[in-house]
Every structure is written in C-alpha cells, then in structure tokens.
Amino acid sequence: MTRTVPAPLPPDLFDPDCPVPTVPVLGGKKWAWRILRCLEGGPRRFSELRVPLVGITAKVLTESLRSMEQDGVLERTEFAENPPRVEYALTPLGRTLLGPMDAVCDWSRANLAELLAAREAFELAER
Amino acid sequence: MTRTVPAPLPPDLFDPDCPVPTVPVLGGKKWAWRILRCLEGGPRRFSELRVPLVGITAKVLTESLRSMEQDGVLERTEFAENPPRVEYALTPLGRTLLGPMDAVCDWSRANLAELLAAREAFELAER
DNA sequence: CCGTATCCTACAGGATACTG
DNA sequence: CAGTATCCTGTAGGATACGG
C-alpha cells in the first residue's frame, strides 16, 4: 500500500475570474484602509481627511475616495453652499468592512514586534 | 452654548513611523495571501506552489517567498538531495495570520455581489 | 473649499533566457 | 528542480500649477 501523501494543490484553487484580488479596497490602495478608519466616527469633509492622512495630495485623496465610492463603501454628498462643502460617509457596506479590518489591525499590533525581529534575524543570517 | 460637533481628526491618528503599512504580507504583495492559503494544509514545494498560482513566474514567486520568509511568516527548507528539493512551510507566526485573512476572505465572499452591483450603478450614474 | 490638469518617478510585477 | 540574470512595462502614487 502506498504511503499517504498530502493532497496536491488543485490548479483551480483560485478562481481566475474572481475580481476580488483587484478590489482596491482590499489592499491595492495605499490609503483606503486609513480613510475607512477616518470615517468610522461619522462623516468627514475633504479637508478634514487631509489632516490625519499626512502627506496625501488632493489628487490621490480624490482618486481614492472616487474608487471607494465606486465600490460602494462610502458615499459622497455635495452641499450647494458657498464656500462649497462636501462630506464623505461610510455606507452600510463600508461599515461591514470595519470588522475584518480590525482583525488585521489587531494582528499587526500584536505581532509587529515579532515580525520586525524576524526581519532583523533574517538580515543577520544573510552575512 | 455651542452645538456639539464631532471631534476633529487628530493629525497623529496614524503613526508616521509605524512600518505596518509597508509590511508586504499585509496587502502590498499581490501573491502573499494566496501563498499563505496554499501552505495552510502543510509544507509545499516550489513547483507545487506554481500549480494553483496560475501565471506567476519563478522570479516573482521567489521574491514573494523570500519576502515572506524575511517577515517570519514562512520557513524555507532545503534538502541536500538530487534533484534538489525545497519546501516552504508556515511558521507559527504565519499561522496566526490565517484568522484575520479568513475574516477578509469571508467578507469578500459575502459582499462581492453587492460591491459589483455598486460598481455598475456608479458607471450608470456617470452618464 | 474642493477639487482638476499635467507631468513625473519608483517599483511591483512580468517575459525571456539561462544555470547549479 | 529550483532557481538567477536581464530587460521591460504598467500603474499607483507624488509634485506642481491652476480652476469653479
């Protein structure tokens, strides 16, 4: 009788048609998660978002917000005032993302030290 | 008395020195999460990984594996055989990543339809 | 205040060929 | 089998200037 080997990995383990890997909100965008976090406590204005998002340019913030709006995780509201006012708020869909996002953030906080230590050890081992 | 407004976002909401955003395993790498998933069931060989990771080149797979090894989430073991054999396996640290990863994947599965619908609605609204 | 319009750069990722 | 070595390209992201 042959020895039991682990099942080989199926070639179709990942659906090539699945658009999830390309969903920007899932990591493709540098700022998306932070923006989500900024909106956690309620709607925020464009200029308000620029404060904690240190270094972001208007162009990139606009692009990020548009992309997330397109994905339905946030909503853009323009008020017909002068000077103009625009508010961004999480949609219910966007709000459901906070849970998984927290899971990842918690992991980072809990394991950052170990990860950095691993990096150092790796560099030492290279010489 | 003034009306209560939401607290302004603090400028230091995100630590500029925090290396988490640059941690490749957290989304910066296109293939990292899939590789993690491939190793979930036990150690795998280089060529074995190439099967489900359709379209990945040897160079990119090597780079991804090295980067993840450096971060301490997987371990590379070289056997002194001929032909050569190399196995990649999750470390305990890497295994702790599976939980948060599942949370995100579950979210994707549960909300993909809604997200795609939002994209379509957005495109329609643009015209 | 809230963007848009250009231009530019860095780097992840890929194509192809070759090697211990 | 498990990679390196080159070369190349696409695009996210940034700098700067201007517009409604």
Outline of chain A: extended
Indicate the CATH topology of the domain at 24-96 in chain A.
Arc Repressor Mutant, subunit A
Alpha carbon gap, first and last residue of chain A: 46 Å
CATH superfamily of the domain at 24-96 in chain A: Winged helix-like DNA-binding domain superfamily/Winged helix DNA-binding domain
Biggest β-sheet description of chain A: 3 strands, antiparallel
The overall pLDDT of chain A, averaged over residues, is: 87
H and E string of chain A? HEHHEEHH
Rg for CA atoms of chain A:
21 Å
**Would you report the number of β strands of chain A?**
3
The CATH architecture assignment of the domain at 24-96 in chain A turns out to be Orthogonal Bundle
Number of continuous helical runs of chain A: 5
Highest-level CATH class of the domain at 24-96 in chain A = Mainly Alpha
Q: Please report the two chains with the greatest interface, counting residues with C-beta closer than 8 angstroms to the partner's C-beta.
A: A-B, 57 and 55 residues
Q: Which structural class is indicated by helix and strand composition of chain A?
A: mainly alpha
Oligomer: homodimer
Percent of residues in β-strands of chain A: 5-15%
Query: What percent of residues of chain A adopt helix (DSSP H or I)?
Result: 40-55%
Strand order of the largest sheet of chain A: 1-3-2
